[in-house]
């Protein structure tokens, strides 16, 4: 019986996610068309995407979600925002920061019906990890987004953790922060690896999920380091919160 209930709960979550996404996608298109002429950063569209996340998570009774540290975000400042990556749920949860940013996400996600199409509308940054040229383009695109006044959100582990433990941070995000001379905003996520296992269909209920915004690292605090040193420093900071 428990296994059956778990399957039913999982079906409910995935169907609810895609039904809400499908229902809101025409709204996203309309918002894009109405605001694009004067909102070049797509600030309003991104806020609507945050609202999508809020709706999805608030009609999902299986998880208890707590986001702390929002007051540490200066909404007049651009950041390279970095978070550990435990599961696909991290993406939905991080929208609850209600901060303006552009995601860096693997190219395949942009092809997902409704969700990926909304990412495309938002002009988030695609990355094909197999192609070296894609990494160079991502770094260039991210730098341009920062110059335009957008923060950039990156998972420096590159992929989801298999066991919830923090993995080695790659240097791309920190190379961007050094070159663009912007602060780094670390974020620690806990609980999503138990809520949705990597690559799994089954969703586990009654889990506490936490996203905690940590103290920003001003550019002056790491400007003398190389990207590997900064990556290690930020990995240690986030790791202490997990």
Précis, in short:
This protein is α/β, with parallel strands linked by helices.
Give the topology, please.
Blueprint: H1 2-35, H2 43-58, E1 63-68, E2 80-83, H3 89-94, E3 101-106, H4 115-121, E4 125-127, H5 132-147, E5 151-154, H6 172-180, E6 184-190, H7 192-195, E7 207-213, H8 227-239
Parallel strand pairs: 1-7, 2-5, 2-6, 3-4, 3-5
Antiparallel strand pairs: 6-7
Task: Describe this entry's structure for a reader.
The chain has 242 residues and is an alpha/beta fold. It has a single domain, classed as Glycerol-3-phosphate (1)-acyltransferase. 43% of the residues lie in helices and 15% in strands. It is built from 8 helices and 7 strands. A 7-stranded mixed sheet has the order 1-7-6-2-5-3-4. Helix 4 links the parallel strand 3 and strand 4. Helix 5 packs parallel to helix 6 and helix 6 packs across helix 8. The longest helix has 34 residues.
